[in-house]
Request: fold
Amino acid sequence: MTSVLQPQKEPTNGTYTFSSRPRPVQNRTTYREPAAEQTDGQSNYGNIMYDRRVVRGNTYAQHIIPIPDPIEIQRQQEARRRAFARKRAKEQFRPRTPEALEGRKHIDVQTELYLEELSDSVEDTSVECQTDAFLDKPATPLFIPAKSGEDVATQIEEGELFDFDMEVRPVLEVLVGKTVEQALLEVMEEEELASLRAQQRAFQELRNAELVEVQRLEEQERRHREEKERRMAQQREVLEREKETAEKIASRAFAQQYLADLLPSVYTTLRDHGYFYDPVERDIETRFLPWLFTEVTRTIEKRYVARTVLDMLLREVTQKRLDSFQQPEAQLPSKEESMG
Reply:
């Protein structure tokens, strides 16, 4: 025999008690039964040499199962969700047959090449067959075997076999003794149970008092911890503010120091690039000097044209003079002609 502990919850204080109840042990066979003959209540044994979960041989080259990428899984789920949404939208926007008017209903129309008759009722026929009448079979009589042999009887007078008062005395003593013993055992068990209940109540009261004290200490510790965390948070916030203020002051000082040399250089660079200029100088550079250059160019062009015209006149006069000097020499006779 063995005992099994079963928890029983008391609704009063939320604690658990355990009681043991006897339970017969299952009989186990000496040899193992085949797997086909085993019942559901019996454990299933197997040879671990043929179990796939048992690794045998070299384990250096085992296949490592790749860990799926959560980003890829999320991408696949998003793609399936989009495909399902597109399919549902396509079904919603698919053209459908309009609803029938009031008092009418749609009917199925055959669109096949060969039409066939449609009917809701199934064709059936009734066939009858006349049989001969049968008579009811009477009940089978009870079988009574035939009597054989001779009848023999024995007469026993009162008091010949046993004396009831004398024979029943030990039985009665045993019954009474067992009853009294069982009663005494029950009384002792009740007294023991009462003492156990009293001890349990005392232990429960002590345990409840200890639980209350523990809860009080835990609450006190929680308050202290919260106060400590709050103070640490406040101090941390103060330090952060001080650090932020120091960083702001340092940043401002660095910015002032950096801008002290930056502004003159920026102004100088802007002045060099012409962002800051003198209006008179700018007016001379943008208006007067271009006009002056234009006038000078025009005057030079006029002088160049005059010189070109003068050169042409001189060339023409010189050419005419040269032509006039060459014509008289051609008209005069030569010495040989005059002598002849």
Q: What stands out?
A: DSSP finds four helices and two strands in the chain. Residues 170-276 form one domain. Residues 1-12, 35-43 have pLDDT under 50 and may be disordered.
